[in-house]
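Handout, page 2. Input:
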Amino acid sequence: MQSELNNVRKITSVRYLYTVKRNSDGNAIYVVDGLPDTDDDFRPYGSPIEEEILPVVNKCLDGQIVHGTEILDTSWGMVIPACEPIKKNGITVGALAIEFDGSYFSENTKNSQRYGIIVCICVAISVGLVAILLIRSFSIPLYRWLAYTDLLTGALNRNAYELAMHTLCDSTPQPNLLVLTCDINRLKAINDQMGHTTGDQYIRSMAQLLLRRFKGKAETYRIGGDEFVTLLHDLTPEALETAMLDLCAEAQQITFGEYSLSFSYGIAAFDKDTDASIKDTISRADASMYKYKQECPKP
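Output:
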């Protein structure tokens, strides 16, 4: 809002544009000052309203609309004050205060000109607010995608994983929730022998296998350099085991030099009798994965 007020102030050549309210002691204070916070005249939240302008502000906080009709000589220069109450459910909760630079006006300026400027400010603020809403409607989904997507693989990232864990820990997980943990094998050897660009391709290949296989049935998260967690719904452990055997066979067809894509995995189903939360289920899946990794021949 401070930025929006500052933009309107520049567009309309208003000297000062800010919002005010009364504090618990009944004194008028600044809420949002439209000046940049680096400006010498900037007033932070809670600063008292200056004595010269206080009568105008108090009238407005009492519910009266104050239109600028005369130049006020203040310690910060000649200004023409105007003020519009801000009401909620018919009760004045604050005010929008405007101070025009008096040097731009003569004492004979017609009231209609001032009314026109106030109307322009109100229109500019309305247009600005509409623009903000429109921008947010487009930008919020993009920001959410950037915040929760692993840009290397297209899978959900660690932020999304932590959010999912928080949500699942605060609720009772579904009885048919399955956890699949995967850890890529041979990544260090590929990075050392073929470079990190090939290593990134190796990681992406693993992510794409999981995303394609479980599209619409699960959420796949990349939680570390070579670690993935997939949360599945409405699938039995037996069916998932069969799917993973097929996935392992498919991975063998993806080669990087002398190496084929290889990974270890573990499966665990949420059990309300043994798991205090989904984290216990993930721990069991991890234990199964590391056991699988230890039993596999070393590359």
